[in-house]
Amino acid sequence: MPNKPLTAQRKGSSHILLTFIHPYANKLVVAAVLLFLSTATLGVYVYQSLQPVDPHSEQVVEVNIPEGASGREIASILKEQQLIRNEDIFYFFVRMQGGVNFKAGRHHLSPSMSMPDIVAHLESQTYAESELVTIPEGLTVEQVAERLAEAGLVDQHRFLKLINHGDFSDITFVRDIPEKEDRPYRLEGFLFPETYHIPQGADEEEIIRIMLREFERRYQDWKELAEDSPYHFYDIVILASLIEREAAVDSERRTIAGVLHNRLEAGMKLQVDATVQYALGEHVERVLYEHLEIDHPYNTYQHEGLPPGPIANPGLDSILAALKPEKHQFKYYVLKNDGTREHYFAETYKEHLENIRKARAQQ
Q: CA–CA separation, 106 vs 199, rounded Å?
């Protein structure tokens, strides 16, 4: 037998024809097949990398492109903001276009945009003209409206009217806000605290939408936790707003969250002073006994359970505290009077009374 591999065989009527190929030809065939497969795989990978990170996303992300930023630096910024799938593919895509003249400044982009769309946007559009405004944690909708009006960005009356009657149903979580008659503002709790660059000429509806989009973007950070929570999405925001107004020290957020959870589970009234402040519609230096007796759906001294809606716009830390409360047996807390803005916590009412006496002695 010849010492060569048999690769094909065809039978005839009187003889057998054997076809032989040199061993090196086999290697070339294998190499060609591997090259084809790797090229095809690479092509699929590149194609996927050009697609949107999340084609169904409704987020709007503000991206700042520094003056003189290189293609590599811009790719890194976009990847960090989760707007592209792969930095290298972005860089080589731009190179394949013969280079792109990106515009420095602020850009509004979305994970629903494909890589070619993002490149085209960065080349043609920018939000260079804008007004900087900071919305701190814990403001009410009315306080947000007042701050924006003072900056000359909104008409306060129109802003508050849109909060209740504007159509923002295209934003996913807004559709999950339950209809209620006993709350003053439908979107209370959802104007996310942040420093915003408001585009020049933006009207009240656009500004509200920018803030709601920011809430939606941050919602991705705790959405899975919310799905595992025994509380409805809206109730989580209500709890977070109470925590935001009650916790002046970051380290106490989860502790206070634990107290609220414990009281709810025990069927106790929450008795949160901040809800009384909200019911009064104005800030008072001290909540008095006469304030605790007002008949109002937000007065948690008079009504069991959560108030009808959030009492402020909470930040992410308070939302996470509502979702991951500290596990303990405390059911009471009272503010210390030592200037630390911290609280004394107690498991029993007797201990709570002792803490009240201790706090009063510090005055």
A: 10
Beta-carbon contacts of residue 139 (< 8 Å; ≥ 6 apart)? 147, 191, 193, 312, 313
**Residue 108 corresponds to which tokens in the numbers above?**
């509004």
Task: Report yes or no: 127 and 105 within 8 Å, Cβ to Cβ.
Answer: yes
Please name the residue ranges forming H helices in 269-348. Answer: 273-280, 289-292, 316-323
What letter does residue 103 receive in the DSSP assignment? P
DSSP letters of 341-361? --EEEESSHHHHHHHHHHHHH
Query: CA-to-CA distance for 76 and 97, rounded, in angstroms?
Result: 19
Angle at 135 between CA 131 and CA 138, to 5 degrees: 170
Instruction: Residue 119: name the closest of 81, 80, 78, 69 by CA.
Output: 78
Q: Could you report the per-residue pLDDT of 162-210, keeping only the tens digit for each?
A: 999 999 998 989 998 999 888 999 999 999 998 887 888 889 999 999 9
Whole-model pTM: value is 0.67
> Which tokens sit at 85?
């799938």
Of 275, 278, 264, 256, whose CA–CA distance to 332 is shortest? 256
